[in-house]
Write a structure and sequence with these properties.
Layout (H helix, E strand, L loop, with lengths): L2 E12 L8 E9 L3 E7 L5 E10 L4 E9 L6 E9 L3 E8 L7 E9 L1
Antiparallel strand pairs: 1-2, 1-8, 2-3, 3-4, 4-5, 5-6, 6-7, 7-8
Length: about 110
């Protein structure tokens, strides 16, 4: 089964130092129930593209793993998030510092 979705996600960036965009329009295509590809307006106010795989844990909880582009710090970054009911999500976040004092935080959000 395949489908195309579009929407907007609202996020909070916890444990991070910088100021980040909190409104993320997105488009996503799901192929064969688990392969995902999409694009969104990221926290750094740039367009990110991603590709990955969605693993269903229960009928409401899933884990998404993949790679994402469009961030200033690296050309490609690993991507992961846990979703609940295709609406709520939580994801790890890292701020890269040139002095190797990287900051680890978390992004929580809701998507419509």
């Amino acid at each position: 089964m395949s489908n195309l979705t579009a929407g907007v996600a609202l996020t909070l960036h916890l444990g991070l130092v910088g100021e980040y965009n909190q409104v993320h329009p997105y488009a996503r295509y799901t192929y064969d129930s688990n392969f995902i590809v999409g694009a969104y307006y990221n926290s750094e106010e740039r367009v990110s593209g991603y590709i990955g795989y969605e693993i269903d844990i229960t009928n409401k909880v899933s884990i998404e793993l993949g790679v994402v582009s469009g961030y200033q710090s690296r050309d490609l970054l690993p991507m992961g998030r846990i979703t609940y009911d295709d609406t709520l999500f939580i994801a790890p976040a890292i701020e890269y510092d040139s002095d190797n004092a990287d900051t680890v935080g978390v992004v929580i959000g809701i998507q419509f």
